[in-house]
Amino acid sequence: MNNIKTLIKIFIGLAYKSYCLIFQKLKGKNIILMYHRVRDDSDHALLYDSAMYISRHILQNNIKEISRYFEIINMDDINESRLSNKPTCILTFDDGWADNYSYALPVLVEANVPATIFITADYIGKNKSFWFHDIWLIAQSCLENKLSSEFFAYFNKHVPYQESSTITENN
Description:
alpha/beta, four-stranded parallel beta sheet, two-stranded parallel ribbon, 13% strand
């Protein structure tokens, strides 16, 4: 299993570096990179959507590599003229998760790079979760308890549908 993980990491690293070479030709262009969540490097818990998470170490490496090819700028400065010949890059974090503050901010401060965090204001101070997190918890519970009918019952109750498109286990 570790060999597969190593091969995947090498492949992704090579693909990333190839894209960076392509991006060198983007003079005068702006790109915006969107992140969601940053976890502690030692956190190996099951994450409900691993594509939404990166570790602090990966964020540090991303910033280091991005800085080689881009000038990382603040979103407010997107229309400003540049002295650098590098294309510009803006880092954003969506949804304003607490881990953006706990784990991403120290990395950004250490690297001295700006970022924009978009906060979902309706969730501040409330014990609410995003819909996709609710679905993950239901699916995880169904898998653990072998209750696929519970998962489909949730969708039939909460997902708008026409009578002819009801989701069932047999569909």
